[in-house]
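Duplicate of #3305? Posting structure anyway:
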């Protein structure tokens, strides 16, 4: 799907990029690869997950849900997070390619 969207010049907007259920969201936030990376950047695990998606897919537009202004600011800040290549590779190994 992503490849076809890219070929057609279409942006892809994933539904619930941090997981559609509480269980999925918790699985991302507590994944050891994510939790090992976050402190090195002074960020949250959710920010790492969003930054990873933006790093590996150039035609993705993320619209994560939020329940507070604090989470909104956190989600927006993920756009400024630059992950290292080895971190991107580790996350891709943990979660696969979307």
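Output from current build:
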């Amino acid at each position: 799907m992503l490849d076809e969207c890219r070929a057609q010049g279409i942006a892809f907007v994933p539904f619930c990029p941090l997981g559609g259920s509480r269980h999925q969201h918790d699985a991302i936030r507590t994944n050891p690869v994510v939790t090992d990376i976050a402190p090195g950047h002074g960020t949250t695990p959710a920010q790492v997950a969003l930054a990873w998606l933006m790093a590996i897919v150039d035609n993705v537009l993320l619209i994560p849900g939020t329940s507070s202004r604090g989470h909104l600011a956190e989600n927006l800040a993920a756009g400024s997070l630059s992950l290292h290549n080895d971190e991107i590779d580790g996350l891709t190994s943990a979660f696969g390619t979307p």
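Confirmed duplicate; merging threads. Residues 22 and 28 are 10 Å apart (CA to CA). The chain has six helices and no strands.
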